[in-house]
Amino acid sequence: MKTLLLSPLLLMPAMVFATPAPSAERTVQVAGRAMVRLVPDTVLWSVSITANHKDLVEAKRESDKQMKDILKTTRQLGVQARDVQTGQLTVQKEYDGSGYPRHRRQFLHYVLTRQIHIKQRGTDRFDDFMTGLIKNRDMTVSYQLTSSDLQVIQAKARIKAVLNAKTKATAMAKALGAKLGPVLRIEEAPQRAFHAMSRQANTVEFAGGAVESEQGTFAPGAIEVAVSVGVQFALD
After folding, report:
1. Is the pTM value of this prediction over 0.70?
2. Cα 180 from chain centroid?
3. Where are the beta strands (DSSP E) in 147-200?
4. What are the tens digits of pLDDT across the range 139-161?
């Protein structure tokens, strides 16, 4: 006859060891925002020129002529070479849309598009730039107002936004009978600067022909630099 021996540990009643749940961390998360308004002193021009021709070489020749005219204009306006940047050249074939199937559509011409970016330092000659850039050319012109002190202004607005967030969090904690603890997290939202009176990018299309501009028709107004931050604090 076999004897079954049981370990004393198996005869003991089961015991459950429960780990106490950690106390929930009390936090407060707020958003701080700051806005600074300043007068712009820089105009960023973006010019897109287009040349069409059935002969690709002729289209390229016309595009080169347009580009040389614009570069000549920038020199006459006193723009430094470091403030002019030419973009890439794109070539597309254009067909009439009436042919079907697609391979039977009639070829119209090649379309060459080039871009050039120009930085105008100061806004007092805005009308001269506009007149010079659009004269006798088929193109799209857009401009953006900005400031040479933009980074400095953004840095100041960023500190102001953080302080606004702290003030807000302190008031909220006090209203609930708590005290503000250490900072747990800081996160900045994307920055942006925009014209106070209109869109950031202003675009006008021209289809050739001489264009005359009255002097003194441009008012720069002001641009606003807005910075938003999110801050999370612990509560004591």
Report:
1. no
2. 35
3. 180-188, 192-195
4. 888 999 999 998 899 999 999 99
